[in-house]
Amino acid sequence: MPIAIDACAAQHQADRKEQQDRVAILSHPRKRGVVLALVADGMGGYAGGSLAAEQVLHTAKSSLEHFSPAEEAPEKMLEAAMLEAHTMIRASRFINEKEPHSTAVMLLLQPGRLTWGHCGDSRLYRFHGKDLVSRTVDHSYVEHLVNIGRISPEEALTHPNRNVLMTSLGGVDEPRIDFSNSIEVVAGDSFVLCSDGLWAYFGEVEMGLLVAGNSARKACEIMIDEARRRARGAGDNVSLAVIKIVDVPAPRPSPSSFMK
Q1: pLDDT (tens digit, 9 = 90+) per residue, 189-211?
Q2: Are 175 and 169 contacting, i.e. CB atoms less than 8 angstroms apart?
Q3: Whole-model pTM?
């Protein structure tokens, strides 16, 4: 049965003075079925963070426009987009006298193939139905502590150093970028890309149930509203993109097709 995409990107400024996240779902200008979703969480003081995240969005758009699936590996396209953003953010320090940097998580969908990459602590969750298949591993100090067994995932949510990143775009060192891919794309698969202003308030089980039980748009609305409620007036910027792979119902035969 043919499949289609049900997708929605959404964000909320929450209780911050400025929206420093960027989120988008972009279609390739020439290649049907090629779509790029991304979330970037900018940091670096007033205006600096938003400029960094905007640079990630700009380079992602440019990289997608020049992407030729027949000639270029998708991982290379995602890597080039992030490294160019890193270079441009670094250069902006000399112009703006700020210390901007940004996380990034990107998902590239092609017919029969999915590829994603991330830098920092913006996440990608992959579900099938309501069940978690995988999620990206944050490049953060607390995630490192979880991985070596020093603290539990629950303790990481309230750890005093939970916002300390071990790599980012625009940072002093060359960024670490991790990739993954899948050649199996079936109806019932879904993906959530989000900043920490969203995932900090949801467990994987709850998120999976919300995405499976609602349209992409409704799932975004529910999760943003609930994140705002749970933040109790102290919430970070909230950004997410939900991508659902759904069946396309077969067209019903017209009455005339039964006539002889």
Answers
A1: 999 999 999 999 999 999 999 99
A2: yes
A3: 0.92
